[in-house]
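call fold(seq) -> tokens
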Amino acid sequence: MFNPVELFIGLRYTRAKRRNHFISFISLSSMMGIALGVTALITVLSVMNGFEKEVRGGILNMVSHLTVTDFEGKLKNWPAVVEKTKTHKNVIAAAPYIEAQGMMMNGSSMNGTLIRGILPGQEPSVSNIFSKMKEGRYSDLKAGKFGVILGQDLARILGVHVGDKVTMVTPTANVTPAGVAPRLKRFTVIGTFYVGMYEYDSTMAVIHLKDAQRLFRMNNSITGVRAKLDDLFVAPLIRDQLQDNDLSDYWVRDWSSYHANYFRAVKIEKRMIFLLLLLIVAVATFNIVSTLVMVVTDKQSDIAILRTLGASPNSIMGIFMVQGAIIGFIGTLVGTVGGVSLALNLDVVIPFLEGLFGMQILDPAVYYISVVPSDLHWDDVWTICSISLALGLVATLYPAWRASKTQPAEALRYE
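ret:
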């Protein structure tokens, strides 16, 4: 269908000649509409990817890539489980932990707490929590000293600082002559951390594993084993492999299952925003239809002359498909360059706009993220470009088909 003649004539029709200025204006509007839609799609999806990456990073500071627990809630022979977990080639490290609910009190202030017992020597290999320390040192967490590291917001709620005492209340109870009383234990605050997730910063308390075993009367048992992988995105696959082989007697979970609803909601939200912004591109491609219909009407006599010179209906169709495809290609190219450039330079563009208009898009007093993050995924770029080019090509079919059906005698009757 396409050869140099159709390509030459199609390119010629794309430019303004004599009375075609209005048609060329519509063509330019179509190009700019497609470019705007593609730019918006690439930029918005990159920002959503950036926010998802930031939140996922905050979650993974507290939730390991994999966890191995017993179905009854207590893992007894945990050193063997640690060794079995480490045998997998994708597992970098593994460490034991105890996790339980409790309550923290200081005077009249109290707050529900997620208590986690860890081994300070092994925890940094599977978690980033200690890299988020704001006060104190995690090395001061020693067995028998009953020290505790609190989330920064939890410390603020309780009104305590490093060196202060807090009372921890556990769900287990002591039976005394006076009746049943809750188990209470005084802990010394030795540090605070801040991971940027209010869910953890306001409820998490970290203590030594040995202290947690004594506090919850677990003897030598633990809650489970946490593992870190060389690639967090293959965690579901590694989970299935471990569950089916070495750890078939245990419950293996990956990080995505802890916040499955959140990640599912983000995925659905990205899909809906993609479809909504794709409407901008769709509207622009409708302009291509109107442009080509007007061009076909305006070029009736030219089409008739080409037909009388021997041009086939397919050649006529190819001429107008070239014109529409050029509009879609240029719009997609400009939009891709603009979208990729904007997504890669948001860290410069956003501060410039904030300084220009004297405002702050993300107030750190309100949001945990004070900058607009961007994470460009090239597979998103290729998908957007492919859909944009496909829509532009589809938009040319009807006008080009209509042009190919032009009858030379009818078109030249009044010429």
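Residues 4-57+262-411 form one domain.
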